[in-house]
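C-alpha cells incoming
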C-alpha cells in the first residue's frame, strides 16, 4: 500500500510542476513587444516624441536598408522618428553621400559611433526636422526627427538637437 501512495503522490507532484511551468510560460508570452526594431524600442521613441508612439520595422535584406518608423498622431499633425540602417559595400562613401544632404550646416557629433553629424533637414511640405547621419564600423545610419505640427515646440533647434543626440546614442550603441 505504501508504494502505491508514493506513486500517486509523485504523479500529483509531476502534474502540479508541469502545470506550473505551463502557467509561467503562458504568462511570459503577452509581455513581448510587437515592434521588432533592433535599434530603438517604442518606449524610448515615445519619450523622444513626447507622446505614445507606434512603430513599424522593415528588416535588412541584401542591399536593402533596415527601417524603423515611429509615429504619434495628434490634433495638429504628426511627429515621426525614422531610423535607417544599411550595410553598403563602401561605408565611407555612402556616409559621405548621406552627409551631403546636410550641406555646409552639418555639425560634428562627438562620441557617437565612428563618425556622426547633425543638421536641420530641409523644411518641405510644412515639415520641420533634424537629421543625424553616422557610421558604426561598416554600418551607416540616419535618424530623422520631424513634425508636421505648426509651431511645434519640439521643433526648437535646441530640443531637436538634444532629442536627436539621444536617439543617435541609442542607435549607435545598439549597432556596436
Amino acid at each position: 500500500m505504501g508504494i502505491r501512495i508514493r506513486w500517486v503522490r509523485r504523479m500529483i507532484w509531476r502534474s502540479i510542476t508541469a502545470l506550473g511551468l505551463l502557467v509561467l510560460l503562458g504568462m511570459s508570452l503577452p509581455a513581448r513587444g510587437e515592434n521588432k526594431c533592433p535599434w530603438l524600442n517604442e518606449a524610448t521613441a515615445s519619450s523622444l516624441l513626447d507622446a505614445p508612439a507606434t512603430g513599424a520595422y522593415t528588416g535588412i535584406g541584401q542591399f536593402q536598408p533596415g527601417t524603423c518608423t515611429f509615429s504619434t498622431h495628434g490634433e495638429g499633425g504628426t511627429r515621426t522618428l525614422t531610423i535607417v540602417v544599411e550595410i553598403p559595400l563602401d561605408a565611407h562613401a555612402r556616409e559621405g553621400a548621406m552627409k551631403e544632404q546636410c550641406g555646409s550646416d552639418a555639425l560634428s557629433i562627438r562620441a557617437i559611433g565612428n563618425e556622426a553629424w547633425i543638421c536641420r533637414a530641409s523644411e518641405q511640405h510644412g515639415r520641420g526636422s533634424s537629421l543625424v547621419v553616422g557610421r558604426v564600423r561598416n554600418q551607416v545610419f540616419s535618424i530623422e526627427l520631424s513634425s508636421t505640427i505648426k509651431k511645434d515646440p519640439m521643433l526648437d533647434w535646441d530640443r531637436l538637437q538634444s532629442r536627436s543626440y539621444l536617439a543617435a546614442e541609442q542607435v549607435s550603441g545598439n549597432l556596436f
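note: Strands lie at 54-58, 66-73, 78-86, 107-108, 115-124, 127-136, 139-147.
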